[in-house]
């Protein structure tokens, strides 16, 4: 990905980061601090989907606790670890935008059966958004969750109804919010949606 962006004329500095390894995350945060001295935008976009891992319908009764644990490790605890390591860079500069890529499948108002690892771990990601929003008030840092919709990615598959570009609109909007923009919300298509 970095090579493709560089070929298009962008200056790109790739960093390797393992969401399940605190040492890896700390090393990446230290490198950002030493190279750039700041971090303005953090997008927590990592995610795993229990049905894709096991090739099944991912029912509450068929998914193993290990699948649930793996989902939480990446989808929720990964974002938790990354925010703990990188938010101090934002605080030091009094500015930051954090975008947590969630899903409408984690909205309690839309909750139904299937895919429990994915749903429960993304509910936890939404809770991280709300907790960070409260604890970062007055810091110049805004944090929001976004539902990109069912997107044509490795996870969503080629038959998903939304192109990647459609999903990016709201993520980019939240990543570049003005100082009077929202914080602590859940958004789809640049509009607030229910938790």
Structure report:
The chain is of the alpha/beta class and 195 residues long. Helix content is 45%, strand content 11%. Helix 5 (116-135) links the parallel strand 2 (96-101) and strand 3. It is globular and about 50 Å long.
Précis, in short:
The chain has 195 residues and is of the alpha/beta class. Helix content is 45%, strand content 11%.
Give the topology.
Layout: H1 2-7, H2 22-36, E1 41-44, H3 50-54, H4 65-93, E2 96-101, H5 116-135, E3 141-146, H6 164-175, E4 186-188, E5 191-192
Parallel strand pairs: 1-2, 2-3, 3-4
Antiparallel strand pairs: 4-5
Please estimate the helix content.
Answer: 40-55%
Low-confidence stretches: none
From the N-terminal CA to the C-terminal CA, the straight-line distance is 33 Å
Number of contiguous helices? 6
Percentage of residues in strands: 5-15%
Average pLDDT for all residues? 91
Main sheet characteristics = 5 strands, mixed
State the order of secondary-structure elements, H for helix, E for strand: HHEHHEHEHEE
Radius of gyration: 17 Å
Sheet with the most strands: spatial strand order: 1-2-3-4-5
- The count of strands amounts to 5
Structural class: alpha/beta
Looking at the structure, what is the overall shape?
A: globular
Descriptive key words:
195 residues; alpha/beta; five-stranded mixed sheet; 6 helices
């Amino acid at each position: 990905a970095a090579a493709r962006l560089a070929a298009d004329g962008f200056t790109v500095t790739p960093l390797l980061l393992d969401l399940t390894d605190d040492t890896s995350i700390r090393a990446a945060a230290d490198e950002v601090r030493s190279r750039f001295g700041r971090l303005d935008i953090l997008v927590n976009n990592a995610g795993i989907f229990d049905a894709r891992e096991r090739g099944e319908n991912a029912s509450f009764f068929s998914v193993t606790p290990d699948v649930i644990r793996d989902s939480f490790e990446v989808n929720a605890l990964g974002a938790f670890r990354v925010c703990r390591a990188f938010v101090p860079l934002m605080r030091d500069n009094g500015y930051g935008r954090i975008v947590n890529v969630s899903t409408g499948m984690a909205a309690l108002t839309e909750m139904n059966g299937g895919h429990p690892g994915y749903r429960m771990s993304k509910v936890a990601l939404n809770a991280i958004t709300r907790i960070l929003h409260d604890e970062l008030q007055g810091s110049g840092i805004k944090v929001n969750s976004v539902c990109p919709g069912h997107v044509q990615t490795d996870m969503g598959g080629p038959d998903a109804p939304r192109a990647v570009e459609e999903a990016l609109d709201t993520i980019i909007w939240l990543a570049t919010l003005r100082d009077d923009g929202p914080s602590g919300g859940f958004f789809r298509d640049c509009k607030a949606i229910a938790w």
